[in-house]
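Lecture notes, part 5. Sequence design as translation. It can be helpful to think of inverse folding as translation between two languages: the language of shapes and the language of residues. The source text, in structure tokens, appears below.
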């Protein structure tokens, strides 16, 4: 019985996620004339990894604001604004986690994870962490990153290199600290929170840009599919509010196990299967 309950609780996240598999962000795409590699990659990441319906709703509202504020911004200015704000957000994002200083060994772990597990993460995660590691590469090659805190090399490492590494650690250290050995699900969640932070910053910047810069006379929207996404989020919201929440405790109580739990487990999985909703 003890082993069965452990198995049941271990598959509970799968059972719960089966009820929330569809994303309201799926209909949203960048207009072909407004293509941006970094914004498109961010959107694709959120479609795949952001399952919370309330957060999806918030994202749709943010994208709608950005759409209105930047629709008359010329393409060159639009791309510059996107790249600037996205880069600033990625550099400035901090989590609430307690993080130790990044070591040279952890940088190597992050590099090996990226090189040896190419299919572990999606394109957006791989692209941002590849870029971060590229900034550290000169200090990996020179081995300075491994000797920075060693008193023996204190007078050997130049002040210029020390300043550069300290700046990299300040803005990128936390991200690479987690990427080095945190579970895949944690890294995906961390980057999803970073993406939401970036979109909020872009929304604020878009308001400022709209009221301080002259726009072009022709309107050119940034996104397509926002109306469809709003309809879909309302449907998912309605379904979520009318569907009882499945908890581990409720699962165990429902089973009422006497001897062989297998038939009851099959019944439970059938109950929560998306095909039956």
């Amino acid at each position: 019985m003890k082993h069965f309950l452990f198995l049941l609780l271990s598959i509970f996240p799968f059972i719960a996620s089966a009820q929330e598999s569809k994303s309201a962000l799926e209909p949203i795409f960048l207009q072909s004339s407004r293509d941006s590699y970094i914004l498109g990659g961010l959107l694709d990441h959120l479609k795949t990894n952001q399952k919370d319906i309330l957060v999806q709703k918030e994202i749709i509202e943010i994208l709608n604001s950005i759409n209105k504020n930047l629709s008359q911004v010329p393409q060159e200015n639009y791309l510059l604004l996107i790249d600037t704000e996205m880069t600033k957000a990625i550099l400035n994002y901090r989590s609430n986690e307690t993080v130790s200083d990044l070591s040279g060994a952890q940088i190597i772990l992050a590099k090996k994870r990226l090189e040896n597990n190419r299919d572990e993460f999606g394109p957006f995660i791989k692209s941002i962490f590849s870029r971060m590691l590229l900034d550290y590469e000169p200090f990996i090659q020179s081995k300075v990153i491994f000797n920075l805190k060693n008193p023996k090399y204190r007078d050997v490492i130049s002040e210029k290199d020390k300043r550069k590494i300290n700046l990299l650690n300040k803005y990128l250290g936390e991200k690479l600290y987690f990427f080095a050995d945190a579970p895949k699900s944690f890294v995906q969640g961390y980057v999803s929170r970073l993406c939401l932070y970036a979109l909020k910053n872009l929304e604020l910047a878009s308001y400022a840009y709209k009221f301080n810069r002259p726009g072009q006379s022709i309107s050119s929207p940034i996104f397509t599919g926002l109306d469809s996404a709003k309809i879909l989020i309302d449907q998912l919201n309605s379904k979520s509010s009318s569907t009882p929440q499945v908890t581990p405790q409720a699962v165990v109580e429902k089973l009422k196990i006497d001897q062989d739990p297998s038939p009851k487990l099959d019944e439970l999985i059938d109950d929560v299967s998306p095909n039956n909703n």
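The translated text above is only one of many valid answers, since several sequences can fold into similar shapes. The mean pLDDT is 84.
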